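Pair request: fold both.
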Amino acid sequence: MILKRSYRVAGHVFSLSLESGDWIWDALGNYEPFLFGGGEKDLFSLELVQELDVQDKRELYVSNPGPGEQRIDIHTVDGGYLFELAPLPDLPVCGWLKVTEDFSRGSLKTVSSRVFCVNNALMLMYAFRTAGLDTIEIHASCTVCDGRGFLFLGKSGTGKSTHSGLWLKNVPGAWLLNDDNPVIRITDGIPRVYGTPWSGKTPCYVNDDYPVGAIVRINRAPHDEIHRMGVVEGFASLYSSASGLRALKPVADGLFNTVSAVAQKVPCYVLDCLPDDEAALVCSKEVLGNA
């Protein structure tokens, strides 16, 4: 028997359907805080299937992941798109996600690494489906302090999670909302940051939201120094960390409009820093005072 469960993230409802007795339900505890009882139409739905009908496959986007990063390649197919998923660059494809052109319906076939495939399929569909709805999924770590959310951006390995940890250690009242993929949504003209079921290697799945206090890009340096960016520089910093397929105009336009609005409403900074306590003190003193 097929079991369907609905979830609500940043106000957007989506559903997952698969066999009721499938062991994978027990492995998806990260979605439990976001369970939604119904009464609202799904923005998108995902179903696990045994077979996929794929025709007219044409390459659209080939990823170039670094060591230890996942590989996701995208193709156009008859009636939509096909995502090929692999957990590491040198591993074979373990999942195929076929979605409609508007990303409202998806079918996922897996041969291994099923939890990885389900998490990434839902995360991808969420990012692309909500791109035109004042919503952006951000590759960032986010702490909450003084009733506001502070997002730390940067390339992989620059220390986003480390900096959040330094806030938790050194800034009174700071706590972690999400450590990898929070969502920003503009609600009533106010950018708010939301917890999600997707938090990378850190199990942090909080169904809560706060006004965005500041966005900080982390750069490794031999000193601790912070400066505020202008709107254009802030836009570029945020846009580069937003999830979405720029090759698709509706997705790219949605990301552009939302990031533009956020960059004009939220102070954006660059923090050149060491991974030390002083970095958190320098950063928090600046952004808490100006948020």
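--- second member of the pair ---
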Amino acid sequence: MKLDIHPIGYSFAAQVRQIDLREGIDLQTAQAIEDALARFGVLVFSGQPINDDQQQAFIEHFGPPSLVQLAELKTAKSAHPHFFDVSTVEDDGSQIDPHSARGMYLRANLLWHTDGSQAQPPMRLTVLSARCLPAAPPPTEYADMRAAYAALSTERKAQIEDMQVEHSIFYSRSKMGMKMSDWTPDAATIRPPVIHPLVRTNARTGAKSLYLASHASHVVGLPVETGRALIEELTEHATQPRFVYSHAWQPDDLVMWDDSWTMHRATPYAGSEPRVLRWSGVREVAPV
């Protein structure tokens, strides 16, 4: 199937039209979506009122679905083992306490991050389905780390080419005030720190990109503060407006992106109307 694709961002991101994901996709369509992701990084499928079974069937075309192992994320509404809700409300409709473990965990989505970089193998693709939106939903912003890498000086590229970075979910959540006592007792065993390259080469395109996230704790082999300053500098570079696409959510949107060369973040929302985005992800098949 040839996809009807319309670019919508400055350097990346596109809308896919005239497709109904509720009907399922075949291998040819899945390959066309892979090709589009390799080019655009972020794909928006509008008007997709899918259910959990349909979302699960969709993501299984692209690799092994990621299991949600942390109890801090689970709710009855997203009890499916591969889903969790990026939500402002509890199952009973009450507002999530921003000082609770779940509230602090979800609030960290306001930081620029790459899904699953704190795991090994890391996340390859993410799919987010809008299940409930307020009248004026806050946008989600995406950053093009491929274009950001290309814009670096030759000297900076050479400096960072072989650097390795430690990523930890506990580091990113500590920025929101979470302490180890806020986690379940087995959290540290489930999510130990992992090491990833600071520069990744896309196996499908051969293009290089930065690989950054709020989970990026420090650069291996550098003094901790020196490495963190470098990560912060590169993050600020990669999130300049010329590298960012801001997605204005519409009811039943489904947004899919390649985590190997994009970052994203939520934007602040203080309204009382609920917002529920159902998350699912696909892992890399091998360590990175």
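Observation on the second member. The first strand starts at residue 4 and ends at 7.
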